[in-house]
Specification:
Pathway: Protein modification; protein ubiquitination
Distance between the termini: 110 Å
Family: Belongs to the pex2/pex10/pex12 family.
Catalytic activity: S-ubiquitinyl-[E2 ubiquitin-conjugating enzyme]-L-cysteine + [acceptor protein]-L-lysine = [E2 ubiquitin-conjugating enzyme]-L-cysteine + N(6)-ubiquitinyl-[acceptor protein]-L-lysine
Subcellular location: Peroxisome membrane
Protein name: RING-type E3 ubiquitin transferase
Number of domains: 2
Length: 304
């Protein structure tokens, strides 16, 4: 004996529908790529290819969901979009919000996370000059963490497969006939989904740990590079300030003449007192310009 009923779709039915839609979008994306190469060639194709999939998704949902029709996957499984809070079919604005979040939600989330959350926190608690690569790595980890966590909850509850549907509260109804075996099948399905959720949770924890180690290593390496570069710059600045203000580097020994500074009055060149005396005794000339001088002509500078 079987009876007909309208119920919420389970995990397997939603996944089958999503896989069908994903396949159709990929085929549409390939056709758009071929059309672009035929019209404009391969020039700059790699730049516009990243937008091809988003355009394919938009065109697909424009001709189905936004046109008040079922998608190929929904029609294949006989799924109906449903708003459980208002107990009615979602409005056009509701469906438009869902499609917009689904197509552009990752870009918006990435921008908000990197610009207003991750970057200020990194500058305050880690280092003010961390590389954009490290910030993007942290942003990608957070987005992946949220998506995988949401997917685990989907396998446990069967409510919302996509974050876009979770935010807009759009679920699926299905019209089926129930039999005496339906309860046992439902029980086996729930047990399988719980086991799958456990496996995904373990995988999620391991991969999150590995990515966090990679992020920590990247932050540490970058901080060391920045600190090393800063120390070198400060050392160069301090040496320049010493050479330009307090001390003079002797052209003969290349050391700083701190107190014993000697001047050749004929040409104005400055040396260490000991170096220039040793030189003049043997050569009677300036080491730099060869101007004739004498040991008695050398001037000892005080407080130079």
């Amino acid at each position: 004996m079987s009876t007909a009923e309208l119920r919420y779709a389970n995990q397997l039915e939603i996944i089958r529908s999503e896989e069908k839609d994903r396949y159709m979008i990929s085929q549409l994306s390939k056709q758009l790529d071929e059309l672009y190469t035929k019209l404009f060639g391969l020039n700059n194709f790699h730049i516009y290819q990243t937008y091809s999939h988003r355009l394919s998704e938009f065109l697909y949902y424009l001709t189905t969901t936004l046109s008040n029709r079922q998608t190929i996957g929904e029609e294949y499984i006989c799924l109906i979009q449903y708003n459980p809070h208002k107990r009615q079919i979602p409005s056009l604005l509701h469906r438009l919000s869902m499609v917009f979040i689904r197509i552009f939600g990752d870009l918006i989330s990435k921008y908000i996370l990197s610009s207003y959350i991750i970057k200020p926190l990194v500058e305050e608690y880690f280092h003010p000059k961390l590389s954009l690569q490290t910030i993007e790595l942290i942003c990608k980890f957070l987005l992946t963490f949220i998506e995988r966590t949401h997917k685990i909850f989907f396998y446990l509850t069967g409510s919302y497969y996509n974050i876009s549907k979770s935010l807009t509260r759009i679920r699926y109804l299905i019209y089926t006939r129930t039999t005496s075996e339906s309860s046992s099948i439902e029980f086996k399905l729930n047990r399988t989904m719980k086991f799958l959720s456990l496996c995904l949770c373990i995988q999620h924890i391991i991969e999150s740990y590995l990515v966090l180690k990679q992020i920590a290593l990247s932050i540490t390496q970058h901080r060391q590079e920045i600190d090393k570069k800063t120390d070198e710059e400060n050392k160069i600045i301090s040496e320049d300030s010493i050479s330009s203000t307090d001390h003079v580097r002797c052209p003969l020994c290349y050391e700083f003449a701190i107190s014993n500074v000697a001047l050749i009055p004929e040409c104005g060149h400055v040396f260490c007192w000991q170096c220039i005396h040793t030189w003049v005794i043997e050569n009677q000339t300036c080491p730099l310009c060869k101007t004739n001088t004498m040991q008695s002509r050398i001037v000892h500078l005080i407080n130079y």
